[in-house]
Amino acid sequence: MKKFLLSFFVVGTFALYALRQKINGESLSSTPNNFLPVNQSQGGSSTAPGAPPKPMMTPPGHMPGMMSYKDGRYTGSVVDAFYGNVQVSVTVSAGKISDLQFLDYPHDRQTSLEINSYATPILKSEALTAQSAKVDVVSGATQTSLAFMKSLDSALSQAN
After folding, report:
1. Residue 100 backbone dihedrals phi, psi, to 5 degrees
2. Beta strands 96-104 and 85-93: pairing type?
3. Residue 50 and residue 110 in one domain
4. Is the entire prediction scored with pTM above 0.85?
5. Residues 12 and 61 in one domain
6. Residue 39: beta bridge partners?
7. Which residue among 50, 63, 77, 96 is least crowded, i.e. fewest CB within 10 A of its CB?
8. Could you give the number of structural domains in the chain?
């Protein structure tokens, strides 16, 4: 009988603890995820939707002694982003990235269209600001962001 009561007490205590954790977890995560870009290099700060990404203090393309890119138009490799492929084309003028176009991105599902209609302009803007493929991952579009960086990096490697 003592073993039964002890077991019941341990299981009951665990159940109450788990319930308490669930209640506390829900109250902390009540804000919706609006696919905010996450700044990996600054420990997870975000940019509000519609606001331009925070520029770096000194973009890598503007640092003294940094190599500039050869002028021209370069097409990156096709990269699998799980829900579809990502491919970009970059235009370099005066040694700097002047334009960037998405040639392909995941768009065959409604969710992919919604996510990427938000994520692709952010990725483009950040790449133009950073003057490199090292940009922040857009939360909610992680696979597209990572594939974007790989495709852009392959395009920029042609411009070196």
Report:
1. -145, 130
2. antiparallel
3. yes
4. no
5. no
6. 45
7. 50
8. 2
